[in-house]
Write a structure and sequence with these properties.
Blueprint lengths: L1 E6 L4 H14 L4 E6 L16 E4 L9 H6 L3 H7 L1 H12 L3 E5 L3 E3 L4 H6 L5 E3 L10 H14 L6 E5 L2 H16 L3 E2 L4 E2 L4 H8 L3 E3 L17 E4 L3 E4 L2 E2 L2 E3 L7 H9 L5 H15 L2 H4 L17 H9 L1 H6 L6 H10 L3 H19 L3 H28 L2
Parallel strand pairs: 1-2, 1-4, 2-3, 6-10
Antiparallel strand pairs: 4-7, 5-14, 6-7, 8-9, 11-12, 12-13
Helix pairs in contact: 1-10, 4-7, 15-16
């Protein structure tokens, strides 16, 4: 069976751990690495466990590739390419069954049952949670988060390349090409929220409720991990298939782990084992690399509000053929608002109001006009921010 994952260079250590654990328990697994970045120095394909390496420049079919990448931050980009990558791999290699796994997943058992499940269902999802919360904290951490970020976790997705599976992939890819953003107020959270409506649109999507698939900190309230590295791992008494170590870099993984597991609990041993594997895979060296689409050509970092401006303003999008150019950078810095700019406007607005109150004649008219100008500017900015969720 074929598998793929999507990364930038800083996630290659995680992808190496995924490859190591996947092939340890699935000898026939073929793993594809899809990279939205340059490969790091010293990356030797001959000495890696990835069977194929695909760069998104060879996969994404859009009118202006540089404009399209500029629209996305790093997480949005790595998720936006998943549908296109799946279609490309199936087309190029004639793959019958294809599974996506996030790079921060560790595989601890055979995934052959996934292939069996694809006999009956052309597409497979895993929910974030498979049991109701039993405490207020669980409602907030598990259920409300699922409503916010997506009912199904797209760190896993399996598809069969029959007519139904391909119909789903084409639909999903079409949505991701234009609507794969971290924009929760407007109903989007990268690739994941599209999964909420997919089972209503396609009657061939199967939902894996078995607890041993996609175990993560968000479902530990009802999934009990037991065992050890020596004797193997189980969850709710069933052999663990894979664990999703999400939030490892930010520290969120450990915070959530502490909420659901006492020190010495087997799941802590599992987490520490994963951390050890990451270090062996080059986390210290590669983990802090910044992807190549993070900067303008002049080396300035692209701010998220610049990407949003480019996305929301069709006139700006149409004007700049290369959004990474010095010209575009200068325009963005002149025309987007920082917290510092807002603070300065707010202070000057009330400064001119105060001065107009204690002035007379021409000076009073001058300060009143300046006050009106600053007030108008603040109102315009606030209206734009409210409209665009910047």
């Amino acid at each position: 069976m074929h598998f793929f994952t999507s990364v930038t260079a800083c996630y290659i250590p995680k992808a190496r751990v995924l490859a190591k654990t996947l092939k340890m328990h699935n000898e026939d697994a073929v793993l594809h690495l899809v990279i939205s970045d340059d490969l790091p120095p010293g990356f030797d394909r001959e000495n890696e466990e990835f069977d194929y390496v695909w760069n998104i420049e060879d996969i994404i079919e859009v009118e202006n590739f540089r404009k399209w990448t500029f629209l996305h931050d790093v997480v949005e980009l790595c998720t936006a390419v998943k549908g296109a990558a799946a279609l490309h791999i199936i087309k190029e290699l004639g793959v019958d069954r294809l599974v996506y796994l996030d790079p921060d997943i560790g595989v601890f058992g055979s995934l052959a049952p996934v292939s069996d499940m694809l006999e009956e269902n052309s597409v497979l999802f895993t929910p974030h949670s498979t049991a109701p919360a039993t405490a207020p904290r669980g409602i907030v951490d598990d259920e409300l988060c699922a409503l916010k970020y997506g009912v199904y976790n797209f760190g896993f997705l399996a598809v069969k390349s029959d007519s139904r599976g391909m119909r789903f992939l084409r639909w999903w890819n079409d949505r991701l090409m234009g609507y794969c953003y971290d924009d929760i107020p407007n109903g989007m959270f990268t690739d994941q929220k599209w999964g909420d409506i997919a089972p209503g649109l396609f009657d061939f999507i199967g939902i894996i409720h078995l607890p041993e698939y996609n175990v993560a900190t968000w479902n530990l309230s009802h999934r009990k991990v037991s065992g050890s590295q020596h004797e193997g791992w189980s969850v709710n008494g069933r052999p663990l298939r894979f664990f999703h170590f999400t939030g490892f870099d930010s520290g969120a993984h450990r915070v959530m782990l502490a909420l659901h597991a006492k020190p010495g609990d087997p799941v802590w041993e599992l987490s520490l084992l994963y951390e050890k594997w990451l270090e062996e895979a080059g986390q210290e060296e590669l983990g802090k690399l910044v992807y190549k689409y993070a900067y303008y050509a002049n080396g300035r970092k692209i701010e998220k509000k610049h990407r949003k401006m480019f996305r929301l303003r069709s006139d700006v999008y149409d004007y700049f053929d290369d959004p990474y150019s010095d010209e575009c950078c200068a325009w963005m810095e002149r025309n987007t608002v920082s917290n510092k700019n807002l603070k300065e406007l707010f202070i000057s607005k009330y400064k001119y109001k105060f001065l107009s109150f204690f002035s007379a004649g021409k000076m009073r008219r001058k300060y009143k006009a300046l006050y009106a100008r600053e007030k108008f500017a603040l109102n315009q900015i606030q209206a734009f921010l409210n409209e665009s969720n910047l």
